[in-house]
Design goal:
By secondary structure, the protein is an alpha/beta fold. It has four domains: 22-107, no CATH class; 138-247, Ribonuclease H-like superfamily/Ribonuclease H (Nucleotidyltransferase, domain 5), CATH 3.30.420.10; 277-423 and 436-524, 3-Layer(aba) Sandwich (Rossmann fold); 567-613, 2-Layer Sandwich (Herpes Virus-1), CATH 3.30.40.10. It is built from 20 helices and 16 strands. It has a six-stranded mixed β-sheet, sandwiched between helices. The protein is globular. Residues 570-603 form the RING-type domain. One of its GO terms (biological process) is protein ubiquitination. One of its GO terms (molecular function) is ubiquitin-protein transferase activity. Keywords: Metal-binding, Zinc, Zinc-finger.
Length: 614
């Protein structure tokens, strides 16, 4: 780069805002979030306890630091190697073998790399410029991946000598094509150009796309859309004379021969972290104190989304055993309590009959915060019997209230934990590709929150569905930093493990991104900053009993049929008109009727449905 008079820039080439490091690329960079989401959701062709990369990350790589990030890279590389041998050689690999090999490899790599740097590399850099090695049988392997949704292509290539040692490797991303064959051709072209830049004359270029190799060899399709690339490749090959392009029958991405070894006596804590490693990760990130804000979803769907996960009870049912909301609060409290200096926790409710999707109410009538998690739970249990669950669902009001608190604190770091049973409301009139009014406001609030030192964690309780929320982050446009995370509480707590392991897994899933987001807010200059643009939010007081008589007639976690029948709006989504009647006489809209098996009003089992036409 110095020779070509190019400026050497250490910042990330994707977001242009932070120093380019392993931790940043893997976990922090907001521009790479779609790639991370795609990778972490992939299934792994491996025997063992992990179904996808996200399970592996939760279990093996806490806390998030440089050391664990390096190990993660090696494990992913090893998984890719095992994937190829699974596909081409029908071999199966166990996860403990993969992780064991990776730890040994990384230890050896660090040791040898440290020795080489001390004895050779530093001296060479000081004494003279790098020169190409002698002529050898250099082989290159290249591949391309195409995202047909946006026409983006990622190319990777690696150059080895006859002994299998890696001499150079590179990658590039470019846009503007929707053809996988064009992507494969571009990979070969870039591979030749890259080798020339490195001063390495290739003997062989390997590609797994037989069709494009045939085109290059026989000079086909020169008059087609691929012709220009094929011509460029052949021109470079003719210039080199001895370069051959071949099809590889078996992908072999090996740096050198290395035996697979399982490290005996490996600590169980490596694979089953408790709650303490989560707290340690927060400490290691530099997080000394954090202020917690809690938001509770009191929409009507809480009455039936506990059918499977909570024994057909309302998720807000108060009894001798803790409901999902209380359990989630308790686990979060155990982990974050050491970081809350004043132990004051602002708590808000939303989605009930007094707030709907427009406002929030405070747990105290004078808007003071709760003093510790014990008071949070006590206030929650006293408020629930007075509530009338309603809707629609929007997270915008509680996010706006949290932003106002952060602004008033002078830009102190806060974590907003929203516990909810449902996705942001989408009415039947919202077409695919469009956003509902509630979605638009929620997304706008999340974007606004990224200008403040505020992390948002959405915890999903109940039966769901949660498909929209799992991909909700993709709908959010560019932000100051990646400040939103969704965690499926029900999925984690339904795993076949001990209660302690479930709590640890949930705490890790809910808070694993907090160290990264805190560091991003600090590095981007957001921490300690106020904008002066936050909306001034005045919460409503907590709901009070309607009348003593009403409370005697209506169970605390159910709504009155008379009140629900006064409007023609569906009692579930509160946006569409009622057009589906049940055997009990109550009605909902057609779309919502498919989601329930018990009447949302009287809880009677639905045996008949009658479509109404106007």
């Amino acid at each position: 780069m110095e020779r070509q008079k190019e400026e050497i820039d250490g910042s990330c080439e994707f977001c242009k805002r932070a120093t380019d490091t392993t931790v940043h690329d893997l976990w922090t960079c907001s521009k790479l979030q779609p790639i991370r989401d795609a990778w972490f959701s992939r299934k792994m062709i491996l025997k063992g306890q992990y179904n996808n990369f996200l399970d592996l990350v939760f279990d093996c790589f806490s806390p998030v630091n440089v050391k664990n990030s390096e190990l993660f890279c090696v494990v992913v590389w090893r998984i890719w190697f095992c994937r190829n041998s699974t596909i081409h050689e029908a071999k199966k690999h166990k996860m403990e073998d993969v992780v064991g090999w990776s730890k040994e490899f990384l230890q050896e790599f660090r040791r040898s790399n440290s020795e080489v740097r001390r004895e050779v590399i530093y001296d060479d850099i000081r004494r003279g410029r790098w020169t190409p090695p002698d002529i050898d049988d250099y082989n290159a392997n290249c591949d391309a991946a195409l995202d047909q949704g946006n026409g983006t292509v990622g190319i990777g290539l690696i150059i080895r000598n006859s002994e299998g040692n890696v001499l150079a490797a590179g990658s590039i991303i470019f846009e503007g094509t929707f053809s996988i064959k064009t992507a494969k051709l571009m990979a070969i072209l870039r591979c030749i150009q890259f080798s020339n830049d490195c001063g390495l004359r290739l003997k062989k270029i390997e590609s797994d796309e037989a069709t494009v190799v045939k085109w290059i060899r026989e000079g086909l399709y020169l008059d087609s859309e691929y012709g220009a690339i094929v011509s460029d490749i052949n021109r470079l090959i003719d210039k080199e004379k001895e370069t051959a392009v071949c099809v590889i029958r078996k992908m072999l991405w090996v740096i050198r021969v290395h035996r697979v070894t399982v490290i005996e006596g490996m600590e169980e804590n490596m694979f089953k972290p408790g709650v303490s490693p989560v707290t340690a990760a927060l400490r290691e990130s530099g997080l000394e104190s954090s202020n917690l804000i809690l938001g509770f979803d009191f929409t009507k769907s809480n009455e039936w989304t506990g059918k499977v996960s909570f024994n057909n009870r309302s998720l807000h049912a108060i009894g001798d055993t803790s409901n999902p909301y209380e359990k989630a609060i308790s686990i979060i409290g155990k982990t974050l309590a050491p970081f809350d200096d004043d132990n004051l926790i602002p708590c808000f409710g939303f989605g009930d009959a007094t707030t709907h999707d427009q406002e929030v109410f405070s747990f105290h009538s004078d808007h003071t915060p709760c003093n510790g998690f014990e008071e949070v739970l006590a206030c929650y249990r006293s408020i629930v019997p007075n509530l009338k669950l309603s809707g629609p669902t929007s997270y915008a009001p509680v996010i706006d209230a949290a932003i106002d608190i952060v602004e008033k604190s002078g830009g102190q770091y806060h974590v907003l934990v929203i516990i909810a049973d449902g996705q942001v409301t989408r009415s039947v009139n919202t077409s695919d590709g469009e956003l509902s009014p509630q979605e638009e406001k929620t997304i706008k609030s999340i974007v606004n929150a990224s200008s403040h030192p505020l992390s948002i964690v959405l915890i999903g309780v109940g039966d769901g569905p949660w498909e929209d929320m799992q991909g909700f982050d993709d709908k959010i446009p560019a932000r100051e930093f990646d400040n939103f995370q969704f965690v499926n509480f029900t999925a984690i707590m339904s795993k076949n493990t001990t209660p302690a392991e479930k709590e640890a897994a949930f705490a890790l899933a809910a808070l694993m991104e907090i160290p990264i987001q805190y560091k991003a807010a600090r590095d981007f200059g957001i921490l300690g900053r106020t904008t002066g643009k936050a909306r001034k939010i005045v919460p409503r007081p907590p709901p009070v009993p309607y009348t003593r008589r009403a409370l005697q007639q209506v169970p605390s976690n159910l709504s009155s049929p008379a009140i629900d029948d006064r409007t023609q709006a569906c009692p579930i989504c509160l946006t569409s008109a009622k057009d589906m009647a049940f055997n009990c006489g109550h009605m909902t809209c057609r779309e919502c009727s498919t989601k329930v098996s018990n009447c949302p009003i009287c809880r009677q089992r639905i045996t008949n449905r009658l479509r109404l036409f106007t």
